[in-house]
Write a structure and sequence with these properties.
By secondary structure, the chain is α+β, with helices and mostly antiparallel strands. It has 4 helices and 18 strands. It has 2 domains: 118 residues, Nuclear Transport Factor 2, Chain: A, CATH 3.10.450.50; 102 residues, OB fold (Dihydrolipoamide Acetyltransferase, E2P) (Beta Barrel), CATH 2.40.50.
Length: 266
């Protein structure tokens, strides 16, 4: 499958959803599709539930002046492609910026299928000429505040300082007295214990193994032995912790905000 096809399809999905006509992309949806929505951090599973969600939310989406940036492939293998669409900035009109991560199954090149979609709407910076927030009485989960993502300043083992947002961390891996911090596009190592690092991160991070902790917002599925992340990587879950981890992941996905805390000093 050509790279541009995945990018074009990702834009098609978002435009269709934003315009309240998700049926335009129905043929590209996997029956096992999982979806995390922006309002109330709604989580649904299955193409049918996805269509119902956007049918219900169409009145709100069509009222919002949504904008989003160009799609970028952040991971690709023989069977999967992960596309990220970031916020669009620089426009003169006040608008609501949308971010999305789309995971495509491309094992059958002529028939790509969307298997996971995560949409979020970051807080809009208040401006003097900005319109009042939209208030809706739709029968929907509470639209509580979205994550306020404070920067963490971390020194790696090469002496380089990194300014990292917790929401950009996919997972953490401990290696003796070090922790490898895995972002979507890079990985670096810092001298710090995993426990110490987790104390400084929001509750959306779940320790699934003695040596691993994952950001629940990047988890696309969980089997009996591992969790699959939206960048295509997998993290092993010990059998005796499977039930507890599953519960913790579900609770983490229900969180609407990042807790503020001190920056790592490691």
């Amino acid at each position: 499958m050509a790279v541009h096809s995945v990018l074009d399809l990702s834009t098609l999905v978002l435009v269709s959803c934003a315009q309240g006509i998700p049926e335009q992309c129905a043929r590209f949806l996997s029956e096992s599709l999982t979806f995390v929505g922006p309002f109330g951090i709604t989580t649904v599973a299955g193409a049918h539930a996805f269509m119902e969600y956007f049918a219900k939310m169409a009145p709100l989406f069509t009222k919002l002046d949504l904008t989003f940036g160009c799609p970028t492939i952040v991971f690709q293998s023989n069977e999967n492609s992960v596309v990220f669409i970031g916020s669009c900035s620089g426009g003169r009109r006040p608008a609501v910026s949308l971010r999305a991560t789309l995971v495509w199954y491309t094992g059958v090149p002529e028939r790509p299928q969307l298997v996971h979609l995560h949409i979020s709407i970051p807080p809009v910076e208040k401006r003097r000429d900005a319109p009042a927030p939209i208030v809706t009485s739709l029968d929907m989960p509470d639209t509580k505040g979205y994550e306020q993502d404070s920067l963490l300043y971390v020194h790696d083992t090469e002496g380089v300082s990194h300014a990292v947002r917790p929401s950009a961390i996919v997972y953490l891996a401990a290696a003796h007295q070090y922790v490898d911090i895995h972002l979507l596009r890079e990985t670096f190592r810092t001298r710090c214990s995993l426990s110490s690092m987790l104390e400084r991160l929001p509750a959306t991070f779940v320790r699934v193994h003695r040596s691993y902790a994952v950001n629940a917002r990047f988890v696309t599925s969980m089997s009996t032995t591992k969790v699959l992340l939206s960048n295509g990587e997998q993290v092993i879950v010990p059998a005796k912790r499977r039930t507890a981890v599953r519960k913790q992941l579900r609770e983490a996905l229900e969180l609407n905000s990042y807790d503020k805390g001190p920056s790592p000093n490691c």
